[in-house]
Write a structure and sequence with these properties.
106 residues; alpha+beta; Alpha-Beta Plaits; 6 strands
Length: 106
């Protein structure tokens, strides 16, 4: 199962920085896609379940930038983020199935 991981990236100032961060993230085993936005200071990473957020953060830091996980609140299982962190990762679409049922007893 693939999951989407959001990272906040600090220290980027140009398109070359974006390319460097993208290359660093794609270098992590299990990562299949990395989309980095200079304007938003974010990276959206698609990866297999075996990838730990700590590994992604370490790769970005080794490239010379700061990174931290953007945790998404929701009823998703707690995931091992690496480096002793815990948080929710978004494995797919929102749990709202479009029928408006959100556990209100109806």
């Amino acid at each position: 199962m693939m999951m989407t991981i959001e990272l906040e990236i600090n220290g980027m100032s140009c398109e070359h920085c974006v390319q460097t961060v993208t290359k660093a993230l794609l270098g992590v085993a299990g990562v299949t896609e990395a989309v980095v936005s200079l304007a938003e200071k974010r990276a959206t990473v698609t990866a297999g379940e075996e990838v730990k957020v700590g590994d992604l953060v370490a790769a970005v830091e080794e490239a010379g930038y700061e990174a931290k996980a953007v945790l998404t609140p929701g009823p998703f299982p707690s995931a091992d983020l690496g480096r002793g962190e815990k948080g929710n990762l978004t494995p797919g679409p929102s749990p709202d199935d479009g029928r408006g049922e959100k556990g209100n007893g109806n």
